[in-house]
């Protein structure tokens, strides 16, 4: 797993007029792993390490009083039939990329899960997770300043955890 420049061809590149956080992480996918970005996104975010759930509960307790959306509320939206991957709203599906995210009063963010095939730039298939955040106000900028280190830790941990437990396999054609 490596920190990389966000891919310029990703659907989150240029999503906002300005970004307050823009990062990307890349990990090699084994040959037998699925290449479907939605399947991979669901796998990565549904099977995150247990400590992340505890951290999200602390976050929810701190932001609920500010009128911000909680992870618990966002998960319920998906449970009620909303188009979501975990707590993230689905914005767009492409054959090699899914764009997730959320809009709130303090900030908007989009998260890309992009399957990059082998080619000139890379010898093996890679999964690239990119995040773009646009803050609306001082609360958003303060919030992102506090959570950015946790965000980076969580994304890296989720990708490493998915590798440890084994990626979902490719589905047979047909």
SSE order, one letter for each helix or strand: EEHHHEEEEEH
Tell me the overall shape: globular
**Average predicted local confidence, pLDDT:** 89
- State the CATH topology: Alpha-D-Glucose-1,6-Bisphosphate, Chain A, domain 4
CATH architecture grouping: 2-Layer Sandwich
CATH class: Alpha Beta
**What structural class do the secondary elements suggest?**
alpha+beta
Counted by DSSP, the helix tally is: 4
Radius of gyration: 16 Å
Helical content band: 25-40%
The proportion of residues in beta strands is 25-35%
Lateral strand order in the biggest sheet: 1-2-7-6-5-4-3
Number of domains: 1
What does this structure look like?
InterPro entries: DUF2867. This is DUF2867 domain-containing protein. It holds the Pfam family DUF2867. With 174 residues, this protein is an alpha+beta fold. Helices cover 35% and strands 27% of the residues. It has a seven-stranded antiparallel beta sheet with strand order 1-2-7-6-5-4-3. Strand 5 (97-103) and strand 6 form a beta hairpin. The N and C termini lie far apart (32 Å). The model has no long low-confidence stretch (mean pLDDT 89).
């Amino acid at each position: 797993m490596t920190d990389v420049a966000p891919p310029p061809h990703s659907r989150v590149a240029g999503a906002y007029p300005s970004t307050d956080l823009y990062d990307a992480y890349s990990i090699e996918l084994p040959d037998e792993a699925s290449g479907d970005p939605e399947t991979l996104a669901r796998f990565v975010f549904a099977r995150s390490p247990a400590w992340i759930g505890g951290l999200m509960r602390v976050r929810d307790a701190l932001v609920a009083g500010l009128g911000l959306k909680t992870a618990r509320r966002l998960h319920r939206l998906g449970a009620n039939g909303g188009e979501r991957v975990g707590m993230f709203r689905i914005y767009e599906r492409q054959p090699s990329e899914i764009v997730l995210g959320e809009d709130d009063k303090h900030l908007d963010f989009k998260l890309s899960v992009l399957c990059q095939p082998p080619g000139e730039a890379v010898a093996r298939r890679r999964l690239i997770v990119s995040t773009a955040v646009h803050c609306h106000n001082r609360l958003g900028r303060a919030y992102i300043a506090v959570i950015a280190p946790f965000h980076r830790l969580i994304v890296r941990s989720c990708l490493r955890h998915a590798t440890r437990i084994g990626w979902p396999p490719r589905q047979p054609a047909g």
